[in-house]
TrEMBL record:
InterPro entries: FA58C, Galactose-bd-like_sf. This is F5/8 type C domain-containing protein. Coiled coil: none annotated. It comes from Scophthalmus maximus. Residues 1-89 form the F5/8 type C domain.
Length: 94
């Protein structure tokens, strides 16, 4: 699948959410997890939510081809909680 973005929300029934996170992914061919990097080659930090109900959209530019996606929480409010939606490319977006 080609992933072009991530939508995140916190827990719907409690004040718990992720404030920032990193993304790792794997392809069919690789066994090792790959960090999504920024333009300077550093592990990209995505900023998440500031409340439990708002959606935050983070786009992946460039998109990634992945079989598996892993979200690594780096900061959170109260406890780690995440509702997640992956944005996929239906047509060629690479």
């Amino acid at each position: 699948m080609v992933v072009s973005g991530i939508l995140s929300q916190g827990r719907c029934d409690a004040d718990e959410w992720i404030t920032k996170y990193s993304v790792q992914y794997r392809t069919e061919e690789t066994l090792n997890w790959i960090y999504y990097k920024d333009q300077t080659g550093n592990n990209r930090v995505f900023y998440g939510n500031s409340d439990r109900s708002s959606s935050v959209q983070n786009l992946l530019r460039p998109p990634i081809v992945a079989r598996y996606i892993r979200i690594l929480p780096l900061g959170w409010h109260t406890r780690i909680a995440l509702r997640l939606e992956l944005l996929l490319c239906m047509n060629k977006c690479m």
